[in-house]
Amino acid sequence: KPTSTPTPKPTSTPTPKPTCTPVPTNTPVPTNIPTPKPTSTPTPRPTNTPVPKPQPTSTPAPRPYPVGMPVKHTASNGIYKVTGTQTLEYTKPVNKKSSVINIPDRITLNGLDYTVTSVGSKAFKNNKYLKKVSIGNNVVQIKNYAFYKCPKLSSVKVGRSVRLIGKQCFYGCKKLRTLNIQSPGLSQKYTGSNAFKGTPAKMKVYVPRKQAKNYKKLFLKRGMRKTVTFKGIR
């Protein structure tokens, strides 16, 4: 009989005991750390930028017109001639068909005031439309033939500064019914020959009261009719 080979008993492998994993120690909680406060950055203040002040622009002073230059002024219906430093002579109307003319004391041209000091020679000579004229208080001279033979002229008012009425100034104004002269300064020397010749016999003449007697003698010498009625005013 074969001998029985003993079956080897398995050796028991010892089960390894798990090693204890060390528990991590508690991480220390940090103590209260002060939260840093944000530093306030100062807001920069805007610097005042100086605003440049506008420099006043110098307006050039208006220049007077040269002596002798003709200028038109529609508002007063006149064409004038410059006679001096801001003085003018009325030479003729812009509209020759105007029946009423008012020659002003002064007018403004190019921003300057001009004084009207005279009515030019032949300014209205043979004007067949003119009926009524008023001459400003700054006019000193009404020159020769200014109203010569104006067939329809019926009324004239002369301002208080007139010193000269030229020769044949109102010659042949056959319908001149009313002549009002406010100037006290007329004289024989500066009242031209035949200034009133050919004017109506029944014309009414108004003059300053104190000069009425002298003016009547003077005007009769200058062609006015003896039948004219003189009336003192003021």
From TrEMBL:
InterPro entries: LRR_5, LRR_dom_sf, Surface_bspA-like. Residues 1-67 have a biased composition (Pro residues). It comes from the Bacteria. SUPFAM superfamilies: L domain-like (SSF52058). Pfam families: LRR_5. Gene3D superfamilies: Ribonuclease Inhibitor. Residues 1-72 are annotated as: Disordered. This is Leucine-rich repeat domain-containing protein. It comes from Blautia obeum.
